[in-house]
Amino acid sequence: MTHHEEAHLRILKIIEKQPEITQRGLATALGVSLGKTNFLVNALIDKGFVKIGNFRQSGDRLNKIVYLLTPEGISNRVQLTRNFLARKEAEYVALKAELKKLRKENVNLAPERDRHP
Question: Where are the beta strands (DSSP E) in the chain?
Fold first, then answer.
């Protein structure tokens, strides 16, 4: 999973929970610049994963937008989540094997006095 895919997954999750969030709010949640957030959101819109909806609040005085996940966006979020979990599980297995190897090396390399109490 690339950095963009990870960012897309995070954006899709946030938008699903908070469709009224602003790009500035997304930028803060992601820890990236507003320009980068705009780029990422527009990429999701271009791919058809997110669409923008308008609504009026308090009559005509305030226009706001909401971000809506499309059915394709929901499918993409599910697939990205599966990929993310598979990668993390593989990392876990590799880390567990590395720890086992290091523990074995540590026992074999320890001076004689450290091996037996």
Answer: 50-57, 62-69
